[in-house]
Amino acid sequence: MIDGLAIKIQIGSDEVRGWLPLLPDRFALINASQEHAGRDRYAASVLAAAVGLCWGGELLNMSLHTRIGPIAVTVPPGPRALVVFGGDFVAFGDAVSDALMRLGYEPIDIFTAGGVLLRAITDSIPTMGEVEASADFSEATPPASTVPTSRSA
What we know:
The chain is an alpha+beta fold. It has one domain. The chain contains six helices and five strands; from the N terminus they run βββααββαααα. The strands form two sheets. It has a three-stranded antiparallel sheet, covered by helices on one side. The chain has a two-stranded antiparallel sheet with strand order 4-5. β1 and β2 (6-11) form a beta hairpin. α1 (23-35) runs antiparallel to α2, α2 crosses α4 (89-102) and α2 (40-54) crosses α5. The protein is elongated and about 60 Å long. The termini are far apart. The mean pLDDT is 85.
């Protein structure tokens, strides 16, 4: 499922290319997931937000609901879209759900994909033990050469 940051999102019968968000967004998503665990309405929104953070498919037409009414969000999904939503995973997830349902995806498929992605995001973060086990505390080796290999004209 994961190749570097590139991933494949299985949503319904479709497989969509995507990417894992950078570490700060991964940590924030995990925290939001833990904060809303057991609260079905918000937990589902966070699962949809996981899909939006990783989504690499076609642009999603999302709406940001404000005090003065909805505003169309024209940035692509992913971390930049989350910024437009002020880092609010529930509002972002709601907008992602609406956009994906307009594309024909069923809510259960969105939330199932979100659960798989949340596990992948959690698993992608190395533990302290893994970091320590892979740490190489030997001295750095100098570069092979810094001499140019051709002359500039």
